[in-house]
Design a protein that fits this description.
Largest sheet: 6 strands, mixed
Strand order of the largest sheet: 2-10-11-1-12-13
Number of strands: 13
Distance between the termini: 26 Å
CATH topology of the largest domain: Rossmann fold
CATH superfamily of the largest domain: P-loop containing nucleotide triphosphate hydrolases
Oligomer: single chain
CATH architecture of the largest domain: 3-Layer(aba) Sandwich
Number of domains: 2
Number of helices: 13
Strand content: 15-25%
Order of helices and strands: HEHEHEEHHEEEEEHEHEHEEHHHHH
Structural class: alpha/beta
Shape: globular
Radius of gyration: 23 Å
Length: about 375
């Protein structure tokens, strides 16, 4: 029987596990669940004015799509030269960057997952003139610029980075804070900790960290997160949700042997309620779940671009299992390259949610239906 998001959030709390690892398809409601859980654990008191400085991290810190909304681009449309990633005024980044001084750690992590020549710089405080000639103070750590540091004193400044790189930087801000949290709470006696701001913290909720990395860096990220969580000696509890099967599988394996861990699958049912079920295998026959999702989309004629990514994932897993050199060899031999180029490569490159919902042409829908039928027939899916 399905449950509401509030009931699922209460279920997460009642589980009382050190780590809860949850897989869910995109669009299921992972971000809404993280917000619901936050409201359950630490409801916001609208009548209470927030202090200028963060006195405590509270009972929960979380990373989700709302975290990324704190950052936005100023593309300098007039001169097209002074491009900056601006940071919305907020206590979270101000605390991490200005108060805790984590800027250098953030840069180190960012370069590890992207490119050691790609260098972000957080601004110091400076003054500019408005259109009336009045001074405006631009506060420190309110924007980020990026440059590529080349050899032979070559340098490309004020570049605009990709959406994936931007997402990676924002994650690194949170990850640097998480390192500090775990290190501080690993000191058993509160009076001996370097800060008391984390003393009330009970939960860390991580919703879909960077998924636009290449596979090697995504694996590295998953291993680093698992190692960091396993190093936590306090009573801090962690909830991680993801739609990425590779990221889920690496975490699944990395957490093997960890006590008090629960691995689950989160689904949205047709009646609008939700289901959270324990997963005992890895990745709980993920390719069959994808196939089931494809069949439902085909039956309802509601095929989106990301469904072609599902197909490619099934082909990759099947080709590996059967010993083929490439997933392309599983496509029908007649017009094989046409199928590959027109559908699989075209649609599987949509990495961001904004690209995943788009109109699919009728002939592409027919081709997807044909390929799913053929793969089931030829390779014996049941």
């Amino acid at each position: 029987m399905g449950q509401t998001l509030t009931e699922i959030a209460k279920k997460l709390e009642a589980a009382n596990k050190k780590v809860q690892l949850i897989y869910a398809f995109n669009g299921t409601g992972k971000t809404r669940l993280s917000r619901e859980f936050k409201e359950l654990i630490a409801p916001k008191d609208a009548s209470k004015e927030e202090p200028e400085e963060i006195e405590s991290a509270g009972k929960i810190i979380y990373y989700n799509a709302f975290t990324e909304d704190l950052f936005y681009w100023d593309n300098d449309l007039g001169a097209d030269s002074d491009r900056k990633l601006r940071i919305q005024p907020n206590k979270f980044t101000d605390w991490v960057l200005r108060v805790q001084g984590q800027g250098n750690n953030i840069i180190t992590h960012f370069q590890r997952y992207t490119n050691d020549k790609l260098t972000p710089r957080f601004n110091e405080q400076y003054t500019i003139k408005d259109k009336d000639g009045k001074d405006i103070i631009v506060k420190a750590y309110s924007e980020v610029t990026f440059s590529i540091e080349g050899g032979n004193e070559q340098k490309i400044v004020n570049i605009k980075i990709s959406k994936g790189e931007e997402s990676c930087l924002i994650w690194c801000v949170f990850y640097s804070l998480l390192e500090q949290v775990i290190e501080s709470l690993n000191t058993p006696e509160p009076a001996e900790r370097d800060t008391d701001k984390f003393n009330e913290l009970q939960y860390v909720f991580i919703d879909d960290p960077v998924s636009s990395l290449d596979d090697n860096h995504l694996i590295e990220l998953a291993v680093n997160i698992a190692d960091l969580i396993k190093s936590s000696k306090s009573d801090l509890k962690f909830i991680i949700t993801t739609h990425n099967p590779l990221f889920y599988n690496v975490l699944f394996n990395e957490f093997n042997g960890v006590k008090r861990i629960l691995k689950s699958r989160f689904d949205k049912l047709e009646d609008g309620t939700y289901l959270l079920e324990e997963a005992t295998d890895s990745p709980f026959s993920y390719h069959l779940l994808l196939l089931s999702e494809l069949e439902k989309a085909i039956e309802s004629n509601d095929m989106q671009k990301y469904h072609f990514n599902f197909l490619r994932n099934i082909l990759e897993k099947t080709s590996t299992f059967l010993g083929y050199a490439s997933w392309r060899e599983l496509l029908p031999e007649e017009s094989r390259e046409a199928y590959c180029n027109r559908i699989i490569n075209l649609y599987s490159h949509s990495k961001h949610s904004g690209e995943e919902i788009a109109i699919v042409r009728d002939d592409d829908k027919r081709m997807l239906s044909f390929l799913v039928r053929e793969i089931k027939r030829v390779y014996g899916f049941k």
